[in-house]
Amino acid sequence: MNDPRDTTAVLLIAHGSRREEANADLRDLAERLAAGGRHCIVEACFLELAEPDISSGGARCVARGAMRVFLIPYFLSAGVHLLRDLTAARDDLASRHPGIVFVLGPPLGPHPLLDLLVDARVQELWSGVGAVEVASAEAADRFRPMENWAGRARSGGQGVRREAAERLDENSGKG
């Protein structure tokens, strides 16, 4: 008998950001989950501000052979987006793809593993690692409504995460 995991997709759903580096986090997670081998079909999608949208992400899962799609919100709590927007997206997917089962999962929190992650972040800050250190004027300029963001991105502007990763690399040999 076939393993139902072969036809079950994982559709990761994040809010979406105007900062491509933030969207890349979800895409990277999807790649890691797929590479782990426990899930045959893994796709990333976004509620807004980035592509693919939820409808396209669900369609990709179906095109790859999914008969059941687990919609996994990359959201911390059951707020308006999850309770209104993601339930509506689930219902829309079900109507567009008759015969395919779409199951919306809970938010990431509250969950004991999230508690451990928050505690780990606090411990990192205690040890002097991981702080986001961008001058407020620079941050305000970098993250204002993105009228000139594309130009900054094309000219080689780097994101907070990349800068933090570089600081971590620099500090990894210290201590």
UniProtKB/TrEMBL annotation:
This is CbiX/SirB N-terminal domain-containing protein. Residues 150-175 are annotated as: Disordered. Transmembrane segments: none annotated. Residues 160-175 have a biased composition (Basic and acidic residues). Pfam families: CbiX. Keywords: Lyase, Metal-binding. It comes from Paludisphaera mucosa. SUPFAM superfamilies: Chelatase.
